[in-house]
Amino acid sequence: MEKFGDRIPEMRMKHLELIQSALSRMSDNSARLKGHCLSLIGAIVGLAAALSKDQIVIYTVPVVVGFAILDAYYLALERGFRSQYDKVRNEKLEALPDFAIAPARRQSTLKAFFSLSVVGFYGAVTIVTILIFIFMPDRVAPPAASNPPPVEQQ
Predict the structure, then answer these.
(1) What is the pLDDT of residue 136?
(2) How confident is residue 154, by pLDDT bands cut at 50, 70 and 90?
């Protein structure tokens, strides 16, 4: 018959797997946010081009900032879960796991906002959007009329 104490290493591995699944969800959410941001920016730029109104491109700025803040939040959570993973991993093998699934310490969202993965991506998106705004033609030529204008009769 197996003793309870013999199962502690197996329980520790299960606890680490649970923390790892939370880490995976955080990184998946971050990747999805980046994809949704690009899709929404593309839709706004496409609308601006279709309506021939370059001012609409300005509306991408709050969208980019909003997605960047949300992405920074997920990155801060992910860092907290990594801290918890390291804490559980470094505990003595004989210690009974508590199965807590929460960030070990709360990371700063502001610090995560200025990380390379957030500022690098969303900064590049912002720069490209500004370039589109600058170089987008003001007006698109209207399509040529299929019927010639009526000729005046004398």
Answers:
(1) 78
(2) low
Strands (E), the chain: none
48: nearest Cα among 127, 122, 124, 135: 135
How many other CB atoms are there within 10 angstroms of residue 109's CB atom? 17
Residue in this structure with the two tokens 């990594």, named with its chain if needed: 82
Other Cβ atoms closer than 10 A to 67: 21
d(CA 83, CA 92): 16
Detail the DSSP E strand segments found in 42-139. Answer: none
Residue indicated by tokens 């030529």 = 141
Report the amino acid identity of residue 127: I
Q: Give SS3 for 107.
A: coil
Reported pTM: 0.77
User: Token digits for 136?
Assistant: 């987008």
Residue 87: which of 138, 149, 38, 15 has the closest Cα? Answer: 15
Contact at 8 Å (CB) between 44 and 7? no
What is the DSSP secondary structure assignment for residue 95, as one 8-state letter? S
Name the one residue in this structure whose structure tokens are 């290493």: 9
CA-nearest of 64, 68, 82 to 23 is 82
